[in-house]
Each structure stands twice: as C-alpha cells, then as structure tokens.
Specification:
- With 275 residues, the protein is of the alpha/beta class.
- It has 2 domains: 8-107 and 175-266, P-loop containing nucleotide triphosphate hydrolases (Rossmann fold); 115-164, no CATH class.
- The protein has 8 helices and 13 strands.
- It has helices spanning 64-71, 94-100, 117-121, 140-153, 171-184, 201-216, 228-234, 257-266, and strands at 8-11, 26-35, 38-48, 53-57, 79-84, 87-91, 102-106, 128-131, 135-138, 189-193, 220-224, 237-242, 245-251.
- A 6-stranded mixed sheet has the order 7-10-11-4-12-13, with helices on both faces.
- A hairpin with a 3-residue loop joins β8 (128-131) and β9 (135-138).
- The two termini are 35 Å apart.
Length: 275
Amino acid sequence: MNGTGTMEPVPAAVPGGDGQGRRHLIEMREITLRFGRITALAGVSVDFDGGQLVGLVGDNGAGKTTLIRILSGMYAPTAGEVWFDGQRITRFHPKLAIDLGIETIQQTVGLCDNLSVARNYFLGREPTRRVLGVIPVLDLARMREASSRVVTHFGLRDTVDVDEEVAFLSGGEAQSFKIGRAVDFRNRVIIMDEPTNHLSVRERAHVNDLALQLRDQGLLVIYITHDVFQVHRLADRIVILENGRKVADVPKEAMSADEMERIIREGGRPVAVPA
C-alpha cells in the first residue's frame, strides 16, 4: 500500500468478529507502519464497535496519533489489514475516510480562523446553488441555517453570529462546534484527539458530556488523551500503546487509573482482555 491512493472498501470475507456472530465496526489486524528505518507501529491489532467510548492512551511517541491517522486516511499501513463494517480498506485518503463516516476532531486544527462560522460548518463540503440555472455560487442561506442549528443545539453562546469569523469562538465553543458539525453530517466514528487541551474546567466538562452523548447515540468515540484519570472516568474500554505496540486492551473495570498511569510511566508486559 501507499499513501497516494484512495481509501476504498472492497467486499471480502469478514475476519474475526466478537465471538457471537457479530462483526466489529472497525478491525485493525497486525498493523505495521514504517517511515524509512523508523517503525511507528509494530503489529497492532485492535477492534472497535459502535456505542463504545474507547480511551486510547500512551506516552508521547507511543503511536496513538499514528494509529488514528491510518483510520482517518492520512497514512496507509506498511503491513496489516483494516476492515470497516465488514469491508476491507485497500487504499487510503482523508476525503474517502470522511465519506465512510470517520471524523477526527483535534484541538488545534479543523477550522479556518479567517472564515465565518457558517463557512467552517461546510468546510470542504460547501453547498452551491445555480444562478440563472448556470452559474454556481455558494448557498449562503443553507450554510447559515445549518450552522445556526449547531450553535443552538451544542451549547454555544446565544450571541454567536454565524457570519462572524470562527476565531471569535472560545476554545470550548470551537470544540463543541466541531463535534456538532461531525454529528450533523451523520458520521459513525468520532475520533477525539486531545479534545480538552487548554480548555477551562467548565468547557472541558461540556466537551466530555458531548462525547458521552455521542456514545449513547450509538456512535464509536475514540478518545485520545494524556489525562489518564479523565479518560478512565469516561471510557468503557482502555487501549494502551507503548513504542508502537499495544500493551493493554481491557474493560475500564479491569484496570484502575493508577495502574494505567503506572503502565504508561514505567512500561509493562502486554495485558490481555479478561475471558
């Protein structure tokens, strides 16, 4: 595989499953990714299902962001297989990951500060209408209507004007807006990469409440953070990476936050899911 192709699903026999005849929403099998002589991921296998909030944790350089960049179509694995909803993904591209319903929400990217709230809502997916039946122009009315709905339903200030630049939003409002946009586009997978960095206590709580609401609506939420105590409160399941390898994959109840911190701080032998 290489990163110049597209993220295309092809029908094939479905591997694995959950042992009860149900297939996983996402299956990653023996994923290895190399950059020259550097091995960023080494034989990582992990499954994800809808209606779960999975905490993906590890120290800097553990491979967390690299793994989700494969899911979001930015990287193609050097070896291994990725399956989405029973179809094997053979080639990778961010736009087609979005088409599959995979959205990544990051703290510092995803919005253009010099564009309005309404323009940011449809960023890369701008609706158009035709003047005189021929000339395509931006459908600003539709953009304002859709972005106003997110402002109303996802906890932004009543005074937010969707025609103002998105730079005027607070950090928490920007995160809430990105989450609302992802939900409105009917995504199935929301990847939250350090979503509460630099937020106030109140904003952090609001973003985390939204993550739980998405989980309860049946979406898969993959939550990446360095805050092990925060993610332990939120997650149904914990996956720990270390130096590009998976060292733990357990239900939250099987591991305390203190034990998570010890494994990340000191390293540890791989921990299997209890039978």
